[in-house]
Design goal:
This protein has about 325 residues and is α/β, with parallel strands linked by helices. It has helices spanning about 5-15, 45-60, 65-75, 90-105, 125-135, 155-170, 175-185, 200-205, 225-245, 265-275, 305-315; strands at about 25-30, 60, 80-90, 110, 135-140, 150, 210-215, 250-255, 280-285, 295-300. Strands 1, 2, 3, 4 and 7 form a five-stranded parallel sheet that branches. The chain has a three-stranded parallel sheet with strand order 8-9-10, sandwiched between helices. Its main location: secreted. GO terms for molecular function: hydrolase activity, acting on carbon-nitrogen (but not peptide) bonds. This is Peptidoglycan/xylan/chitin deacetylase (PgdA/CDA1 family).
């Protein structure tokens, strides 16, 4: 892995994010693996995450998200400010990411979809783990509009995972779960039930200083459910996490997170009304002076070296397009 010295990295970062610019890059992670997975090439493994965290600790002023959001709103961000977030509540956030956060003394926010704790499995992981286990041959996916697909080598499985995830994501939640259950049966073997954290992992992360944020109960596309259901998802998740950690969550992440497509300004008002201090979307960009505190953009680092990682962080400083729900 190609490294870059801390002084050089910090010089580049300070040049692009100097005092007074009031720019906030927010990094978005989900899982972290012990080693690379060819079926999930965008998911970082622990050694890569360690290198990214080492770079962040040496070159940036990494802040808790709720604190950074307040400073952004008041125009008082320090030079080189940045935030780290993880979505969904995966067990590896506790087992693999938490030791790295401690080692590099970095704050982070982990957004937890509480309905999947204690043995649950998200639909996208059902897709990945089923396709991983499918026998070589043809599979009929006409039910979700994909027709018949040939499953053979790793490339075909990776392509199928992408197509299935897109096809299933916007189904009605009940239909989505039913399809995933049917898909799981086709695997012919038991799928993992330990991908997500349980209650004690969430509590341990909170006790270690990691901010636990809201992410709804069942991770629905909020724009696809009615208003009362969306309100319940937001508030029940908040109450569950408060009871679990003893602290009311301060930040929220919209499931899937694309403005207007996945959530609307009405949902941003619900989150505000539920007592949150800030919320993040998946609109790609860096937050700046005109950012909506309840629709902060983020981006996912996919670089495979420290030099590329720094280059991406520097390049993103110019990506300030305001993308918010109407």
């Amino acid at each position: 892995m190609i490294r870059i010295s801390r002084p050089i990295a910090r010089w580049f970062v300070q040049a692009r994010y100097p005092s007074g610019t009031n720019l906030l890059p927010i990094l978005m992670y989900h899982r972290v693996l012990t080693e690379p997975d060819p079926l999930q090439p965008d998911v970082p493994h622990q050694a890569l995450l360690a290198e990214q965290f080492r770079t962040l600790a040496g070159a940036f002023n990494v802040l808790p998200l709720h604190e950074a959001a307040e400073l952004l709103r008041n125009g008082g961000l320090p030079p080189g400010a940045a935030c780290i977030t993880f979505d969904d509540g995966y067990r590896d956030n506790h087992d693999l990411a938490l030791p790295l956060l401690r080692e590099y003394k970095l704050p982070a926010t982990v957004f937890v979809a509480s309905g999947f704790l204690n043995g649950g499995r998200m639909f996208n992981d059902s897709v990945v783990e089923t396709v991983r286990r499918l026998d070589t041959g043809e599979i009929d996916l006409s039910r979700v509009g994909l027709g018949k697909r040939l499953v053979s080598d790793m490339a075909s499985r990776r392509t199928l995972i992408g197509e299935l995830t897109k096809a299933v994501k916007y189904l009605d939640p009940v239909e989505r779960d039913d399809f995933c259950e049917d898909l799981c049966r086709r695997a012919g073997s038991r799928l993992p039930t330990d991908l997500m954290m349980d209650d004690r992992h969430v509590k341990a992360m909170s006790d270690a200083g990691v901010d636990i944020g809201g992410h709804t109960v069942s991770h629905p596309i909020l724009a696809r459910v009615d208003g009362p259901a969306a309100q319940r998802e937001i508030e029940s998740n908040r109450d569950h996490l408060t009871a679990l950690t003893g602290r009311q969550p301060l930040c929220f992440a919209y499931p899937n997170g694309k403005p207007n497509l996945d959530y609307t300004s009405a949902h941003a008002r619900m989150v505000n009304g539920a007592g949150y201090k800030a919320a993040v979307s998946t609109a790609v960009g860096v937050a700046s002076d005109d950012a909506d505190t309840f629709q902060l953009p983020r981006f996912m680092p996919r670089e495979r070296s420290a030099a590329q990682f720094v280059a991406r962080m520097v390049r993103m400083a110019t990506h300030r397009h305001r993308q918010v729900a109407d």
